[in-house]
Amino acid sequence: MSTLWMGNLETYMDEKFITRSFSTMGEQVVNVRIIRNKMTGGALGYCFVEMTDEATAERCLRKINGKSLPGSSPATRFKLNRATFGKQDSGQMYSLFVGDLTPEVDDGMLYEFFYNRYPSCRGGKVVLDSMGNSK
């Protein structure tokens, strides 16, 4: 099993909605666990998505991260990352800014580009303006 973190969830997005969204994108999930406030029971805006194996999780990070979330209203994009609970990373971590991206570049494409050259890459994030366009 391999687990992904998924953020930017709206209050109406439940386990079935997230499972259906992955399925629409051609991916099957084992389990979805939405994280809730212990006092109120309200969703905190993120969840953990269990995939069958590491290859499936990696494919999701490359293929659907940053793509539009099917059925979301208002329109929302998949925001995925590796789940890191209970894991200690012994190496240093760095962030890199890349400018002048073309409009079609999404999180998954950016991650794949760097991961293919630097396998220690942990993720890619395209910063968007209020209109949903790359800054």
TrEMBL record:
SMART domains recorded: RRM
Main subcellular location: cytoplasm
One example GO MF annotation: tRNA binding
Signal peptide: none
GO cellular component, one term: cytoplasm
BP terms from Gene Ontology: selenocysteine incorporation
PROSITE patterns assigned to the protein according to its UniProt record, in alphabetical order: RRM
Ubl conjugation is among the record's keywords: no
Record keyword Nucleus present: yes
Keyword field: Cytoplasm, Nucleus, Protein biosynthesis, Repeat, RNA-binding
UniProt family annotation: Belongs to the RRM TRSPAP family.
Protein name per the record: tRNA selenocysteine 1-associated protein 1
